[in-house]
């Protein structure tokens, strides 16, 4: 093994943060290929040498799943890429996905000591590099599981929470079955996040690795309809169940004109494109319709995904309409930056009032009003208030609403005794246990709308809690 | 994969499929639907489950070849398999003892009505069933409906069979009669269901319709199926598909359902071209 980082801390701090390779904006606006290529070998090596390998690694606390970040980066310094990704995998079974979609800037990289005066280590890009390196060189080997537990555990939903919980339980020796309502695995990673941010091939590889742990996946299986939770216990013989059905039900603004043709929820729009491949219509049967001018309402990652997707589908004018200012946008900086590079026109401090239709009931425009920021509200963000007399009409033929999702109600409605909270979430304690013994829940179903990595943390915690529960039950 | 156990053409454009789907067969109730995707490039379409056999593990779908996907499906043969079938979805029909009920089926909607009629009969109702179609050739399930109904009436638009006219002509006669009809279940094309709703409204007779809408997932995720019911936004897939006919905004729904007509035509024509090319290839 080569020596760890030979550079002195002062030398490490002189190295500038490496920039990832990216597809150039003019080209990528016309395709669905991945925007970021990440780091190459050289950049990874240089970047890894920036890590100070702090005595108190705040970055580990900043990571929702507690990856040993200095540990894996030290292995990168040594060129031990396969060992580095395995180090990550001890805490996170989906490194190629998290390296792409995690908001590192508000997690591990936010607390990186280097970032206090300089710029933080590009932890996310390093994670992605080692995961991609492993895939490119075919270095992955399925961990050998030496323990066997007879108990069957059901996981409902194959998104990030469900996949993570399944992997953790399988590694503990349990007999794990995932039930997925759609025809393809991945949940929001499949239907929500576009190809240009997370290639589906990467998702396929990571999910196959979970199947390789002995996890069975039933697609086309809607829990609550095809079988109920109680049937899973009573007839199928499952001893514990983890609910991870996400927040898949779209919400609408409730303004006039929402049922006009050409108005989509972001969920419908992205599902058509990502899950059903509508961007290849008519080669694929599912159609999508994009006007010359389109608008997306919202300021989160889903809004960015939708507006950038619309741009790639040929929208000449793609507006992003958000009622607060750029500072308040919940989307990742990288996504906002990429959207700007791709010519997305931001209409900030702008609030939709009503959608206007033509004689055939098609969207032809939207009336908006300007907003200004007033007092802070309960979320700590300054509340936008309308500017009187500022109404104006923006001409559009397609409108996409990306204003948030709620949990799907089917399981809650068909599972007696399952306590639900506001906006239809399932209530859990700090160990992800619900009001019913043996039923655990996590991810957006419990949170109401958060990130991939927080869902994964819930999945991990639930796996540990299920293990405790089943051990104490026997 | 879901195997087609048997296929039978019941009119020139309507086929009856028995499909192996054991989990769905165990759970399906009258009024449920499934989402079907034929192959890797296919779209997901909702189809009402017409029947099911939990012992054999099969469900029955009755499909009219109207668009690209239904034409493709209707061209499939016994023994071949459908890639994805998921369900049973939607709320089952609320079946109760009303007394005397009129069941109104239009076109292929009659197939969706059959399991509901069966359930209503089993609940002890007296059934007057009206089957409507454009012409004689498209009248389906008359015998099956007769088996579960106290009386069956048939109307054809062109008068090529039974009474010439619309289902509403027959329904009006029944409502005006002394039969004491206290509920109407109507399934068919949207204009027909709208006409039924308008007819029964002044009579104050409880009327239920099953709405066919644009759907992508069928489980409450996309909101493509949103309809206005009594001024409120509802999702047909999880809140329906059946609703109080008197509260449905039919005009809005009919316009929404036309959203992709031109693209559907492109898809269909492309499919027909390909079939023609294949046929030519085979002929050579």
Describe the structure.
The complex is a heterodimer of chains A (474) and B (284). Chain A is built from 19 helices and 18 strands. In chain A, strand 10 (317-321), helix 16 and strand 11 form a beta-alpha-beta unit. In chain A, helix 3 (41-48) crosses helix 5 and helix 5 packs across helix 9 (123-136). Chain A is globular and about 65 Å long. The mean pLDDT of chain A is 94. Chain A has 474 residues and is an alpha/beta fold. In chain A, the strands form five sheets. Chain A has a five-stranded parallel sheet. In chain A, strands 8-16-9-10-11 form a five-stranded parallel sheet. Chain A starts with 8 loop residues before the first helix and ends with a helix. Chain A has helices at 9-12, 25-28, 41-48, 58-62, 69-77, 81-89, 95-101, 114-117, 123-136, 160-171, 188-191, 200-211, 229-234, 266-275, 301-312, 333-341, 410-414, 444-447, 452-473, and strands at 21-22, 36-38, 152-156, 175-179, 216-218, 238-243, 249-250, 263-265, 293-297, 317-321, 345-347, 350-357, 363-376, 382-386, 392-395, 398-401, 405-406, 439-441. Chain B has 284 residues and is of the alpha/beta class. Chain B is 32% helix and 32% strand. Chain B has helices at residues 22-27, 68-74, 109-122, 142-148, 167-176, 190-200, 236-239, 250-257, 261-283, and strands at 2-9, 14-20, 33-37, 45-53, 58-64, 81-82, 84-89, 100-106, 126-133, 151-156, 163-164, 181-187, 206-210, 226-229, 232-235, 242-244. Chain B has a seven-stranded antiparallel sheet. In chain B, strands 11-10-9-8-12-13-16 form a seven-stranded mixed sheet, sandwiched between helices. Chain B is globular, with a radius of gyration of 19 Å. Chain A binds chain B through residues 181-183, 191, 219-222, 225-227, 248-250, 252, 254, 258-259, 261-262, 264-265, 267-268, 271-272, 275-277, 281-287, 289, 360-361, 408-410, and chain B through 23-24, 27, 37, 41-44, 68-69, 83-89, 216-217, 219-224, 226-228, 233, 238, 252, 255-256, 258-260, 263-264, 266-267, 270.
